[in-house]
Amino acid sequence: MPQDQPTTGTAGGDTAGGHLSAGQAAAAVDRRRFLLVSGTLALAAGATAAAGAATLVPPRRPGSPTAPVAAEQVVPRAARATRRPAPYAATTLETTARLSGSPRSGTYRRLVPGPGLPLVVREELAPAATGRPDRRTPLACFVQFTDLHLTDVQNPLRTEFLRSGGAAAWRAQEALTVAGAVALVEQVNALGEGPHTGLPPAFVMTTGDNVDNNSVLELDWFLTLMSGGRITPDSGDPTAYEGVQDSGLPLYWHPDEPALRDLDKRRGLPAVPGFLTAARRPVTSPGLRIPWYSTVGNHDDLPGGCLSPALGDFATGSRKLMSVPDTDGAAYAKALRTGDDPKSEVLEAILRRHARSARTVTADERRRLCTPHEYLAAHLDPGRTGAGPVGHGYTQNSLDGDRMYYSFRIAENVIGVSIDTTYRSGHYEGSLGTDQLRWLERTLAAHSSRSYDADGRLVRNHGADDAHVLVFSHHHSPSMTRRADAARSEERRHDGAEVLALLGRFPNVVAWINGHSHVNRVTPHPHPTPARSFWEVNTASHLDYPHHARLIELTDNGDGTLSLFTTLIESAAPHRTSPDFTDLSAVGLASLYRELAYNAPNLTETTRPDPHTAWAGTPQDRNVELLLTTAL
């Protein structure tokens, strides 16, 4: 979790007397941390403070070395598919969603098309020489998805009851994650050429939290979304919704019950009759027309992104707890805050203690937790290949030891490395084990004729195939810790600072691209030796405001520098929803999905038409050209 995000309250200990009410407990937690820990939370109250692939290998620059082939994977060449015009704007350079009206309490604000976001040139790591657009050689173009959080909102293991600690602790839009993600796939299929390279995107990389509750059902939705097919975003009783939004509890938005003055209607959310039925209707994904690769996140690996796999029986059971006493809410909030309950004993006790008062729902075996082995095997299923490659980065060798890390060829002289930063025993933070860290070092060395040892001494590897390196992970550097992993207790864990130090030893590293924070942020990592500097690109979730993914392009400027361009993209859904909320088609739901996210608690009161920089990032974190010195 990020350590530098806006917060409400502190992350300190209990109040005097050693007890917290549910509300006090929630306020005592870093709210952004609280959001990502539970997987049930919406934008933080802390916001108030702040188409088919064409040529996958671009032309080689005269005099450049032969392209290296990475250790395990090569991006397959796919046939160019017929592209249709983008259903909306291609990128946020052209236009982006904006809130209409003035920020004020108790008002639901509609979305409208706004002006595009500017391109900002960042020179912290290298100067931007004049004339470089005329000298550029395109190297690569691809898309990053992150934190899709495809969510089975009826899953009994979800902890929506945390909302008793504050309105921001639950998302009104979660039932629409599938419709929203399908619209994002449609947008990528409609993209033409990258605005800075002229290359069509060659592939999509997902950087984790593809699903929300680590269930086999949600994984099926994700693989179908990416490779194409029909998805029914429903579980349990196929004839009825069984979740918090028809519970009668005013704690949650009840769109189908206009007379119930729930918490969200009081802050302006509308009644939308038919919402719950529409949200559960089948949606057809066209599947990506270009290859895609997968990186694992904590929600892919653990229920709720932080809970012990030992709670699996609750997920497939028939009791769903929707409210708890303040004392239990406080106890669970404290367990989340400290992270010192890897076996989830606090939550298990709460679920058992209140089983009789929980709602009876239809048990569903499809909600069972997905083991790492099953996660890999599902990706390797030939029926899930879609536009390729088989396994989407993982290979049959990955099944030996359930290794969720690999390297692959992005383009000529460009290598991708996907790493697994998850704890498997029950925690939301990230780390690398020693074996994987050593593998990463060997992989970087294999593509670096010049590097540096830990003491700063130059190391030459004449047998290396030099290549620019892009590293992908779910967690960003501030969210990686040295906490012990009970599931791999024999192995030392390594934090973000250690990973940064390792990457800085290899001048060929261009960028570390990740998610997890649900925030757009681009961070330079400078070094006194300029070639050892690199960028960290952290991208916001497509579940929460501002609903951004990134189009990423790499160019050689022909003057000793590279440019890494990152351009935010939205889904294909129109910015405007139907005036009377009667459009409950798949497209209409995808638009409503975005609009509800923009109306998360406290955002509409504080966000003017311009993006809220706490989550959307500043202009320096959105559409940017990132200069750095080339090592090749």
Description of the structure:
This protein starts with 21 loop residues before the first helix and ends with a strand. Strand 20 and strand 21 form a beta hairpin. The protein is of the alpha/beta class. Helices cover 21% and strands 17% of the residues. It has a seven-stranded mixed beta sheet with strand order 1-12-13-17-19-21-20, with helices on one face. The protein has a seven-stranded mixed beta sheet with strand order 4-24-23-22-5-6-9, with no helix packed on it. A two-stranded antiparallel sheet has the order 2-3. The model is unreliable at 1-87 (pLDDT under 50). The chain is built from 17 helices and 24 strands. The radius of gyration is 23 Å and the shape is globular.
Q: Oligomer, anyone?
A: single chain
Biggest sheet, open or closed, and with what strands and sense? Answer: 7 strands, mixed
Which strand order do you get reading across the main beta sheet? Answer: 1-12-13-17-19-21-20
Say how many strands there are. 24
| Distance N to C terminus | 34 Å
Helix segment tally: 17
Gist?
By secondary structure, the protein is an alpha/beta fold. It is built from 17 helices and 24 strands.
Write the layout of secondary structure elements.
Blueprint: H1 22-27, H2 31-38, E1 73-74, E2 95-99, E3 111-115, E4 120-122, H3 132-135, E5 137-145, H4 177-190, E6 204-207, H5 216-227, E7 229-231, H6 263-266, H7 275-279, E8 283-285, E9 292-295, H8 298-301, H9 312-315, E10 319-320, H10 326-338, H11 345-353, E11 359-360, H12 372-380, E12 406-411, E13 414-418, E14 432-433, H13 434-446, E15 450-452, E16 458-460, E17 468-472, E18 493-494, H14 496-503, E19 509-514, E20 521-525, E21 534-538, E22 549-556, E23 561-569, H15 586-598, H16 603-606, H17 613-616, E24 624-629
Helix pairs in contact: 4-15, 5-12
